[in-house]
Amino acid sequence: MRHRYLGKAVLAAAVVVSLVATGAWVNPSAAHADVAQPAPGGCAGMTVPEENHSSIRLRVDQPGSGAQVSVDEQGRIAVGGILHKQATMVDVSDEQVATADFTIGPRPDGVAAWAVSWSTGLRPPHLGDNQVCVRAKRDPKRTARILRSFTVVDLIPPSDVPGLTVGEVTSSGAVVSWGAATDNYGLAGYEVSVDGGSPHRTTVGTRSYTVTGLAPSTGHTVSVVAVDLAGNTSKTPATASFATAAPPPPPNANLTITPEEGGATAVWQPDPATDVSYRAFLDGQPIAEFPLDQYCQDANGNPASTCTTQDTISFIIEPLDEGTPYVFRVDALRADGTQSRSISGSFSTTTSASLVPADTRQMDASETSRCAAMGGDFYVASSSRAGVPIPGGSTQIFVGCYKAANDGCIRGFLPPSGNKVINCSDDVTTLLTTVAPPGHGPIISSMDVIPSAGVAKPAFAPSTLIEPITWCEEGACALLLAPAEEAVEVSVLASIAAAASTFLVVTAVGIGIGLVLSALLAILFPTEIGIGGVLEYPISPDTDFDTFDNWGADEGIWYNSLKLYAEVVKTTKELTGTYGLPFAWNDQSDSQLKVAVDEACTAQQSGNFPSGCGTNFAVYVPGGVNYRFRPMNQTGTHIVSAIAGNGGLPQPPGRSVWYYPARSLGGQAAISAGFQRNWFDSDSRFTPNACTGRAAGTTCDEFPFWSTNQAVNLSGLVADIKPVPTTESLPQASDISGFYSQCGVKDNERFIVLPVKPWVDAGGPSFGFRVSDGGASICMAPRP
Amino acid sequence: MLDSLRVLRGAAEAYRTAATAAGLAWPDHAAAERPDLGGEPAPDLVHRLFAVDQVAEQLSWLQAQGWDSQRLFPNGGWLLPWPTDVGETLDKLSFTIGTPFPWRQQIPLFQFDLIVYTFVLAGEHEGEIWRYEASPDAWDSVRASTSLAALFTQWADGIAGGVVSYRELDQWLIVGAHVQDPFQELLERAVDLDPFAFPVSVPYPWWSRLRERQRECGVDLECIERGDECQLELLDAIAAARASLRG
C-alpha cells in the first residue's frame, strides 16, 4: 500500500510540474545523442570584466563593483551609468533576467558633454552574489560590454501577518489560520509558535496550522510571523489567545466507540425488554433509524437470530472526515415511539499516518525556496545531512543551504526546460553522482524491481537513499537533497508553495533533468523501463492533426488512443471558435487529457496502465452545459470529480473502471441486483449519505449513471452522489439520452466517459463521438 | 378536469392533515388554508410561456398557499412556484413527448427529483396532472391524475393506507419505505389507489403496464416507440420557443 501511494504521489507531482514545461519531448531513442550544452549569456566568453569601445564609453556607476545593494520596496535594484550620446543601450541582464527598458537622461553633473546618463531596474534572480551584464552599441557594429559583480541583500522585512484566527478548538488543540502577508522580494513562509515555544515553519501557500497535544481547559497564546526569502521576519507577530475545550465526557459505560480514519464503530448493550428501535445522531443531527435486531450481533460477531441482553448492537458510523471530533448519540425507542434511554459519547477519527511529517515537508519546501532565492545551489534536509558530503570550497548560506565553489555547468540548465540529459562536471553534479548508488540514481534504483518487459506503470519502492529534486522560486533554483520518500512528498507541495519542482536522475551516463519523471526515465533507460501511453507521446494540442503522421508509432498500439485524444482537441477547438468560449488548452489541461485517455483506454482493455484503446466505441465528453447548451455545470463537474478527482487520477484508484461503463436499458442491471431508482434515499445500506435531507430545489446526482452496469455499487464501489440544482437534472438526462441515441449506444454496449475538467469549467457543451477503424467522428454534435 | 375550488380546498386540507398527522412538519406560514389569497393572478410570464390567455383559478389558489419550496409532498416532492425563468421552465418539459395535447400547454407544478408533474392549462385535458421522468429510455409520459384534487386525495389515502409514511431520517414522506419496488407495493398493497399518482419510477418490468396506461390516456405510442427521435423533435421545438420568447 505504501509503495502504491508513493507511486501516485510521484506521478501527481510529475503532472503538476508539467505546468511549466516549455521544451519539447525528447525521443527516447535519440536521447543519448542529444546531449545539451549551457546557453551563452550576453557576456559569455568575456575574459575581462569590461570590453568597451572608445566611441561608446559605456560606464556602470550603479551598482559599484563588489558593492552590497539592497532591493527596494518592489524587490528591484537600480542599474545605471553613462554612455556616449551617439550610442544606444542594448540590454542589462542578470542570469535569466533581462531588461531593455532604459531611461536616457541628461548629462550628469561633472561629466563631459559627450555623455548622457542611462538607468534601468530589474528584479535580481536571487539574493547574494550576482553579476549583471550591461551591453551598449553604436553603429556601425561597435559594441561595449561590462560585467559587474555585486551582492544583493534584502533588508526590508515582510508585512505583519493579518487576520490571525483560532478555530476548531478541541480539548487538545486548535486550528490556527491567517491571511497572506506581503514582501518586497518574496516570502519563504510563516513561523507559528505556541506559548513562545519552538517555531513551526509552513510554506508560503500554507496559511493554517493545526496545534495538537495541549491539555484540556488550558489557556494558550499562538503567534505567527512571516519569513521572507532573506530570512527577515515581520516586525510584530500576530497573536491570538484561546482556551482548549473541557475534556470530553467519560465514555458511557454502555457505549464504546472505536474510531478509525474515515469512520467509527459504536457498540452498546441492547435492552430487548424496552428497546424496539434506535435513532442515531451525529453532532445532534439524525443519521439513522433502525430496528433492534438490524445491527445486533452475538458474541462471535455474527448477526444474532434473536437479540438478547447477551448480544451487542454494533453500528458503523461513516463516512467521516479524518482527524475530526464528533459526538455520537443513540436514543432507544419503545414500541410506542417514546424514548426509553439515551446514551452518548465523544470521539475523534484518526488520521492516516503520513510517511513524512507535515512539519518536515513544510520546512523542507520553505527552506529550499529560501536557499534558491539566496543564491544557494542546494539545500540538504536535516535528515540527510549526515550522509551528504559537502563539496570542498562550498559556502554555507544558512544551515543546510550551500553555494558550491563551482556550479557553472548545472546552473546553465536552470530553470529547467524540457527533458534532457546533461553531461556536466562541476561540484554540484559531482555531489549528485556521489550520493547516488553506483551506476544508478536513487529513483532508478528504486525502480529496478519493475519487470522490464512490456508496458508497466511505475511503482516506486521508497528507500532512504538521497533523492535530488530541483526547486525553483521565481526563476532561482536550488536542489533539495532529502531521503527519497521525503523529497517525493515535498515535491507535491510545489504547486501550493508557488514553486516548480523538477526531477533529477543521476546515472552512470549522466544526469537527467526533466519535469516529467516518466519521460526522464524513458530517456535514460529506453530499454529497461516500459514507458508509454499518450501521456508520453509526442503530440500536443498544437499539433496539426491533418499533417501529423506518427499515429502508428510504437507498433501502433496507441493509434486509437491518439485518435481519441485528437478528436477531443479538435472538437473543443472548433466549438471554442464557433461559440466564443473562454477555453484554451495549456500544458496542465493537456496532461490531464492524456492521463484521462490513458486511464480510459486502460479501463477498456482491463490492462496494465497505460494500455492503448481498442476500436469501435463511443465516447461521451460531459460539458458545463449539455449538448443543447442547457446548464449542467454542477453535474458535469460532478462527473469529472467522481471519476478523476480534481482532473487528475482516479481516487480511489478502483474508480478507474468508471471510465468505461456499459449502457443498461431502464437501469435493468441495478434493478436486477435489487436496487430501486432512488436507492440513495431508500436503501438503509447507503443512508445517511451526502444527499440525505437535501433541500428543496436540489436533486441527488449519481455517477456512474443509473442507466449503466456500474450503477449503485455494481462496479464494486458505491456510486458517488452529490446534491445538485434540480434545474440541471433534466438537461443532464437529456444529454445522456441524446448520447445514447445519436451515438447509437445499444443496451449492454460499453462506452467511454471522458472527463475534461477545464472544458466543464469553461462552460463548454457536452459532445459525443465514435472511434472506429476509419478514424473518429462526432456523433452527438452540440447545437443550441 | 378542473375541480371546483371548494373541492380542491377540501382535498388539499385533507392531505395536509394526513401529512402532518403522519409526522411531517408543515411550515407555520402555510399551516392553514388561505382562501383570502386565492385571487392572486398568474404572472404575465405564465401566459407568454405557455401561450394561454387564461390560467385556472385553482392554480392561482394553490400558488397563494405558501407551500412551495419545501418538501411537503411524497418522496420529498415540492411545489414549483410560478415560473420566473424561461429556460429553466421549458427544460422541465424536455421529456414530455407524445402527449395528447400540445407540449407547451402544461405548466410544471411538482418536482420529485427526477420526476416532474405538470398541470394541463387548456383544452379538453385542462386540469389534468401529467407526469414525466427524466430518464434516457423510460419515455413514461402518462396522466398521474384526472385533477389536482384527485391527486391530493390519492396521496392522503396513501398515507392512510400505510403505503406513504413519514421517515425521521430526512423528515420526508416516503412511498413504499423499505421495499425494493414501491410501484409493485402500490399495485399489490393499495388496490384502491392509482400507482401512477405516486411519484415513483415505473421500473422496466412494469413497462407493459405503463404502455397500457399510456394508451388509455391517449398518448401517441408511435412517438413513445421512437423515443429519442421524438424527444429530439421536442427539444428543437423547445429551443425555438425559448428563442422566440427571448426575441
UniProtKB/TrEMBL annotation, chain A:
The keyword Signal applies. InterPro entries: DNase_NucA_NucB, ECM_Regulatory_Proteins, FN3_dom, FN3_sf, Ig-like_fold, Reg_chr_condens. The chain crosses the membrane at residues 503-525. It comes from the Bacteria. Residues 157-249 form the Fibronectin type-III domain. It comes from Rugosimonospora acidiphila. Residues 1-23 form the signal peptide. The lineage of its organism: Bacteria, Bacillati, Actinomycetota, Actinomycetes, Micromonosporales. This is Fibronectin type-III domain-containing protein. Pfam families: DNase_NucA_NucB, fn3. SUPFAM superfamilies: Fibronectin type III. The keyword Thylakoid does not apply. Keywords: Carbohydrate metabolism, Glycosidase, Hydrolase, Membrane, Polysaccharide degradation, Repeat, Signal, Transmembrane, Transmembrane helix. Coiled coil: none annotated.
TrEMBL record, chain B:
It comes from the Bacteria. This is Uncharacterized protein.
